[in-house]
Each structure stands twice: as C-alpha cells, then as structure tokens.
Fold:
Amino acid sequence: MSSNTPPGIKLWVQAARPWTLGVAVSPVLMGTVIAHTEGGIQWLAAVAALLGGILIQIGTNLANDYFDFKKGADSGSRIGPQRVTQAGLIAPGTVRNGFLTCFVLAFLIGIYLVFLGGWPIVIIGLISLFLGLIYTGGPFSLAYNGLAELPAFLFFGPIACAATTYVQTGIWSSASIIVGSSAGFFSMALLTINNLRDYQEDRKVGKQTLIALFGRRFGILEYSLSVMTATLAPLVLSFLYPERYMVSITAITAFMAVHIVRITAQHREPKELLSVLKMTAKLQAIFTVIFMITWVV
Structure:
C-alpha cells in the first residue's frame, strides 16, 4: 500500500485481512468461468456475487476481530497478524459498526441475486450472513466449539461456486460443485493453519477448535488432507467431463501442496506458520488461474 495512504485506511485494510479474501474470490471466479461454457456469463450477476462474497468475508473477519477481543481470546502473546481491536488501534464499537455495515451491504447486493435466482439464493444468503455473525459471536460460536470447518468448506466452496453459476445460467452445475469443493478445502486449509498456529493460546482461553481439542498432529493431518484434496479434485472433473480433459493440468498444483505440507510438518514454532498461511493463499490463487484457463481451452 502506498506510503501516502491515510493511516485510518491502512488500519481498516489490516482489519479486513486482505490475504484471506481469496477464499471468497476463488469460488466466484471458477463458478463464472463454468457459467461461460454452460450458457454464458452474466457480468452484472458475476460482479454482484463477487462483491457479496468479499463483503461477507470482510464482515466475518471484522466480527472475529471484535468478538475475540470481547471474549478475551486475543492477548498480547498472540502470534498471528495484529488484531486492531485488541491492539487498541480501532475502537471496539467502530469495528462492530464495520462488520454490521459489511453484512448490510452484502444483504442489499443479495436482493439483486435473489431477483435472478429466487428462493434458493434467499436461503443461501441468509444462512451465510448468520454464519458470518456466529462464527465467533454469540453464546455458542462456531470457532469456539470446533464447528468452523464445515461451514467454511460449504459456504466458501461448493455452495458459493454453484450459486455463482446458477444465478448466471439458471443451472445447478455438478462441475461447479466439484471444483467448488476444491475452493472449500482450500478454505479449510487456511482455517487449519490459523488454528494450528494459535492452538496453544486457544487452549489457555477455552477456544475449543478441533486442533485445540486433538493436538498438533491432528492439525497437520487435517491441513494435509485439505490441501491435497483441493489440488487433486480436478482429476475427478476430467473423468466426468472428458471433453474438458485439459482441466486435469490443474492437478499439477498438488506438487506445490506436497512442498507446503512438508514445511508445515517441519515448523513447530507458531511464528513459522505465518509463511505457510501466505503460501497456501498463493497456492489457491495459482490453482484458480490454472483451472480457469484449462476449463475454457
């Protein structure tokens, strides 16, 4: 970001955690390229789906920042990226207003998508907003009770990808569900790395992620299965859609995944896992680009 950027904007960008936005962007881009071959891209719908997904992700990140602070889960000993609420950089009430604004804007964008897709989009949209709020908020939040993985997989994976194709074509595409599963597993992989990095601190504050409950070895296994499944899913697509055989090239990213898995297993210090988080986000971006190119070739 430019040195001329006002400090307030820099803080909001930091709070939005831009390195996590790939989980929202990837399924929409892949769902759109599938729409191109299954009826044609509706650009306004594609942009609306993209903006809606990004707003929900940013809103969830801000809500996480706010509620973790309120519940005492963030402290000065936390290893991960700095949280603006805990660090006193943005007032808690302002962060709360920020995530509520994101969710309201996502809701307003969703009205147009409902016009295109009807009741299925109403259900998906409302559940997405609700899950974003209770991810760390409420008396029984998902992240504090080992329940975060499944909604992360579904709503930043097959549901997001298939719904993107649907609002543009009116078709629930099996191809979108399959490649959307790759996006979902990437979302799980990123979540797992965060939880693996923080699991010792999470245990101290009673945040019962799966890794806090079952330990480091479980976390490495969960990450390995997530990232390897994500990169190998295109092989299923090339089998089911033989005319799209070129999409199997996307599975070359599995070699990159193996490299990252080895690094993850070797790193024992929480700080070392920060690099794995960035590498995983880059891997998802590379996967998405290769898939989009090979799907339309």
In short: The CA atoms of residues 90 and 212 lie 29 Å apart.
